[in-house]
Specification:
The chain has 18 helices and eight strands. The chain is of the alpha+beta class. Strands 1, 2, 3, 4, 5, 6, 7 and 8 form an eight-stranded antiparallel beta sheet that branches. A hairpin with a 6-residue loop joins strand 7 and strand 8. Helix 2 packs antiparallel against helix 6. It is elongated.
């Protein structure tokens, strides 16, 4: 306890100022109690926050019992308290008034069964109690500061709180309540931002039935890989460390990296085969081949040049099988395959008229030019999502410690060698957080089991592709190796 009153006042100003800059709610509550005990010499105390009609203990200190409890541990120890006049803390919260009790065992003003049960369980002896409401500007009580057993300067034994202690703590409680209100506002805003970010991520996942949970998986992998790198004690990344704010930035970038897909047409996102679009054109082509087949079969049955029509029927069926295979996603066609497709597109099988063919020109072009399941035009539509990610996130006034979220999120398709998109950035322009996101985005795509255009790849193939991309300086080789080791795949491939 500070003896000199001027020193106590100076200390009050110091601690109140210190509280005003603390934004971590749990740390703030602990400091509020520690400072109040320092100013009064209290042996023990509790800070309650008000949630509706209940007071929740958030911090407990007790020097005699050697206790320092926070959050859930504090609530497990004391339980919640009703905001009602029968108990001292409830009364202070209900009426916004300070209560000083010289000895709880000699007072019948309030129900002190709770402190007495606590004493019986722990062997502690509660005597003096000072209960001060934490009242924010406007008069709303948002918590209660409860102090126990003021140690007397002369003897060190517990005794009543002095009048000047009460005045000092009431002055301190005013600043503490303002700091608590600000910290809770920050926490509420953070929770709101977190909720909005998750909602956007869920919405993007829900847009495509085939990529549900992609955003969530990438967000989890993103933070997990960053933490794995943070833990590295050897190798090229041994010196890389991430603070809490950087990890939050990395996590949010993972949740938001595909937000631009709200602009991508669903039929492009869900395109499982090359001819799929607003409707699946393979079914139209199938009907054309069936019509040709029906005519040829009828000719064979009727005895109309059965050998020639049987030959045409076999050729037609082989061509249909080739078209079906060409419709499935894969690498672009080679010259020989394209020549065969063009021949099929010009084929009449002795059945079709001069203006009718089994493949329309746009269908021929789609089958010949597609990479995977997408045409070059559709691929550009898909790539545009990162441009929109940058534009959309650029409209959000992120706080300073999250200011790089748009940059990180929109760079997940950039590559170290400059071959990525949308800007063709190179290694010098890609921060570690962007390299991590790029690696986990590729890893998730390779291992996902819900893609319409491919099955999940076996582990050895995943490792081979990732290491090939690393060797070509598309992905960061050091990040890839930590990823593989973290996922238990370092020995594969």
């Amino acid at each position: 306890m500070v003896a000199d009153e001027h020193a106590r006042l100076r200390r009050l100003i110091e601690v109140t100022t210190a509280l005003s800059v603390e934004r971590d709610l749990e740390v703030l509550l602990d400091r509020i109690l520690a400072c109040a005990r320092e100013l009064t010499g209290a042996d023990a105390g509790t800070v309650y926050t008000r949630e509706g009609d209940r007071l929740h203990p958030r911090v407990i200190h007790n020097d005699t019992l050697g206790l320092r409890l926070r959050a859930a541990q504090a609530e497990d120890r004391l339980g919640t308290v009703a905001v009602e006049p029968g108990n001292v803390s409830g009364y202070a919260a209900l009426h916004g008034k300070t209560v000083h009790v010289a000895d709880v065992y000699r007072s019948d003003e309030f129900d002190f069964q709770g402190p007495r049960r606590y004493d019986a369980q722990t062997g502690y002896r509660s005597r003096s109690m000072l209960v001060v409401p934490l009242t924010e500007p406007g008069g709303r009580v948002i918590g209660v500061l409860q102090l126990l057993n003021a140690r007397q300067a002369e003897t060190g034994q517990p005794g009543p709180f002095r009048d000047e202690d009460v005045e000092l703590v009431e002055a301190f409680a005013s600043g503490a309540a303002a700091a608590l209100r600000n910290a809770r506002l920050v926490e509420d805003l953070r929770a709101t931002l977190e909720g909005l970010v998750r909602a956007l991520g869920v919405a993007i996942d829900a847009k495509s039935r085939y990529t549900g949970n992609h955003v969530q998986r990438v967000a989890e992998l993103n933070v997990g890989l960053a933490q794995a790198i943070h833990r590295c004690e050897k190798g090229p990344l041994a010196g890389v460390r991430f603070g809490e704010e950087e990890l939050e930035e990395i996590r949010l970038a993972g949740w938001l990296h595909d937000i631009g897909k709200v602009t991508t047409p669903v039929y492009v996102m869900d395109k499982a085969n090359r001819l799929q679009g607003f409707f699946d054109r393979i079914e139209v082509i199938r009907e054309r081949f069936r019509r040709v087949e029906a005519v040829l079969l009828e000719r064979i049955r009727s005895g109309d040049d059965p050998a020639e029509n049987a030959r045409r029927l076999d050729a037609m069926r082989e061509d249909w099988a080739f078209v079906e295979a060409a419709n499935r996603p894969g690498p672009p066609m080679g010259p020989e395959q394209e020549r065969r497709l063009k021949r099929i597109a010009s084929e009449a099988y002795g059945v079709l008229g001069p203006e009718e063919r089994v493949l329309a020109p746009e269908e021929l072009e789609t089958l010949a030019r597609s990479r995977g399941s997408l045409t070059p035009e559709e691929m550009e539509q898909m790539r545009e999502h990162v441009v929109w990610t940058a534009r959309m996130l650029g409209q959000i006034p992120f706080p300073p410690h999250l200011s790089r979220v748009p940059e990180i999120a929109s760079a997940h398709h950039e590559r170290l060698d400059g071959t990525g998109y949308p800007e063709g950035r190179t290694a010098e322009d890609l921060p570690m957080a962007a390299r991590i996101l790029a690696a986990v985005d590729v890893f998730e795509a390779l291992t996902a089991a819900d893609r319409p255009y491919k099955p999940p790849l076996p582990p050895e193939r995943v490792v081979r592709i990732l290491r090939q991309d690393a060797a070509q300086r598309k992905l960061d080789p050091d990040v890839v190796e930590v990823l593989l080791e973290w996922q238990g795949l370092a020995e594969e491939g």
